[in-house]
Amino acid sequence: MTDSKLLTGSGLLFNVLEQHGVNHVFGYPGGAIMPIYDALCESDIQHFLCRHEQGAVFSAVGYARASGNVGVCMATSGPGATNLITGLADAWADSIPVVAITGQVPTAAMGSDAFQEIDIFGLSLACTKHSFQVTNIEELEKVLHQAFEIALEGRQGPVLVDIPKDIQMASVKQTFDTTEHLKNKVKLPLADISKALNLLTHAKQPILYVGGGVGMANAIDEVREFAQKTGMPSVSTLKGLGAINPDNENYLGMLGMHGTKAANLAVHDCDLLIAVGARFDDRVTGKLDQFAPNAKVIHFDIDTAEINKRREADAPILGDLKENLPLLALALNIEDWQSKVQQMKNDFAWRYDHPGDNIFAPAVLKEVSDLMPKNTCVTTDVGQHQMWSAQHMSIDDPCNFLTSGSMGTMGFGLPAAIGAQISRPHDTVIAVSGDGSIMMNVQELATIKRYQIPVKIILIDNAKLGMVRQWQDLFFEGRLSETDLSDNPDFCMLAQSFNIKAKQIRKKSEVTDAINDMLDHNGPYLLQVKIDAKDNVWPLVPPNSANNEMMESA
Amino acid sequence: MNNYKLIIMTDDKQVVLERILQVTRYRGFLIDGITAKVNTGNNIATIELFVSSDRSIALLIDQINKLVDIKSVKVDNSAAKRLKAKECSA
Ligand SMILES: Cc1ncc(C[n+]2csc(CCOP(=O)(O)OP(=O)(O)O)c2C)c(N)n1
């Protein structure tokens, strides 16, 4: 039996990872994590060598978001560990379950400013859900189990485990004792739904406001059934996209800064707002005191700290959405409201007529969305192309739309797509990126090359940091400051040097064939779509404005 | 500015204090004073934290409660009032 065998700490690490069903990890080796990389040789777990630790952590994030499993990444001490920070912050802000393993200098050297020593544990406090530093080999097994438990429990998030080199090499017996659970979980009171029921039965103009928590609570079926049964008009946050069936006739799309006009006006007019797994983020609410100004609020959340944080809830319902939401699923008499909302949806529907031969990015993304196979996973980077993707692609499940929501981290899209593709080898994965963002983790093209990962990259190229340029044009009197990228590299040549098939298009007439060529290609592909540098994302709620004051042109 | 005294019970982990201070600062509360003692019998630490802020104390309590090693967080209202009275007379 294996349980009597002495292991090293590193061997134990991989055993515990396997116990948690981990098949793939993303990482980058170095001095203080060498014993772990040595033990990797004896493990069945497949390791993907990324070309920067930020790539590794974002691939772990993409893996987690696309599959619902914990994503795992590893890095060495010092610079390796600090390179993880942005990805951990992103996972923290978007509540993504990731376990990050870092090597640390030996315990005896800790605190001596040793070579490649940094207090990653201290650095992690502000950007992880929890973190551990293991200074006693007897604690390692328990800590690793707890790391997985914490990452997945309640509101999910990233957990860092810092392991000094001597602990990685120390010998230890695996106890296989997984029974020690966390003691101090926040206990949620039983939901009191009587107040909420009362609000619901008296509402004439209710709106369902759907956030990223729905997918993470595995409550998509319950939310769709609720929307169906009540007939309630619904809107979604960026991270909630896909939770509501996009074909639902009362679904108005995304709300907030770049949301649809119908969604924002309906929320502004509603008398009851039911927030499910959403947190009244400033990009959603615009000017907070004018957000849904006449509405009572029912707020479903798993995290006590989100209740009353930005908006007072008239009826807070803490706990598991999957169990609680069905308690409110009643048929409602709201035909007048439904027809008003459907009228707005119709009046403000997206239009794709666009003058001239130049390519119109929203139309391209709409066409990609129409042509891509079912269950395609789309990742985005950050900027105009991200908002166009959110607006014009039709998403049928939140695990099929991965975007850096809260952090808005440029560089997310490419490594997240790699992680998503590894977790779902049989699905198509498309990364929509910008010419600014792609350069932030461009080194991951080498990861694509090495493992022949068939990710499709759509590069929306405006030779600008488009979103910032748009704001400079609109709100800084057109004074452009450091947003010009007209000296970009030749992206097709760049892709080809990593054995990635590439094509550039400039004219509307080339679009359909190019999309089909990309989707039909078996391997990785980069489609560079040149667009006009002046194109803006519309509509837009200007800063410090209410959501019913949207701009629709400059 | 309102003054509050929080009584926090935690597992005796070295880093707990650091976590509480980080969360308190980040969430917009000033720390006016702190005492921390460990009961060596049960390894439970009791931390008394005096804070002030314009923000609702519930925001901070919820955030501290989320920290993994925390057992309980309570506001000691009487202490907060005394503190306020002292400030006024000073
Ligand atoms: C890491 C990081 N740095 C800076 C920003 C600020 N920022 C937001 S959008 C943007 C421009 C993005 O340009 P590009 O990727 O070309 O996309 P586009 O807006 O042109 O579609 C910048 C610089 C950011 N979000 N993330």
Which features characterize this protein?
heterodimer; A: 6-stranded parallel β-sheet; 20 strands; B: 90 residues; alpha+beta; Alpha-Beta Plaits; 4-stranded antiparallel β-sheet; 38% helix; binds thiamine diphosphate
Q: How is the largest sheet of chain A built, in terms of strand order?
A: 3-2-4-5-7-6
Largest sheet entry of chain B: 4 strands, antiparallel
CATH superfamily of chain B: ACT domain
**Could you say which small molecules are bound to this protein?**
thiamine diphosphate
Which strand order do you get reading across the main beta sheet of chain B? 2-3-1-4
Stretches of chain A where pLDDT falls below 50 for ≥5 residues?
A: none
Average pLDDT value of chain A? 96
**How would you sum up the global shape of chain A?**
globular
- What class would the helix/strand composition of chain B place it in? alpha+beta
Write up this protein.
The complex is a heterodimer of chains A (554) and B (90). By secondary structure, chain A is α/β, with parallel strands linked by helices. Chain A contains 22 helices and 20 strands. In chain A, strands 3-2-4-5-7-6 form a six-stranded parallel sheet, sandwiched between helices. In chain A, strands 11-10-9-12-13-14 form a six-stranded parallel sheet, with helices on both faces. Chain A has a six-stranded parallel sheet with strand order 16-15-17-18-20-19, with helices on both faces. In chain A, α3 crosses α18 (413-423). The model of chain A has no long low-confidence stretch (mean pLDDT 96). Chain B is of the alpha+beta class and 90 residues long. Chain B has one domain (2-89): ACT domain (Alpha-Beta Plaits). Chain B is 38% helix and 40% strand. Chain B has a four-stranded antiparallel sheet, sandwiched between helices. The longest helix of chain B is centred in the last third of the chain and has 13 residues, at 77-89. Chain B starts with a strand and ends with a helix. Chain A binds chain B through residues 121-122, 125-126, 130, 150, 182-184, 186, 303-305, 307-309, and chain B through 11, 15, 18-19, 22, 26, 56, 58-59, 62-63, 65-71. The complex binds thiamine diphosphate (TPP). Thiamine diphosphate (TPP) binds next to α17 and α20 of chain A.
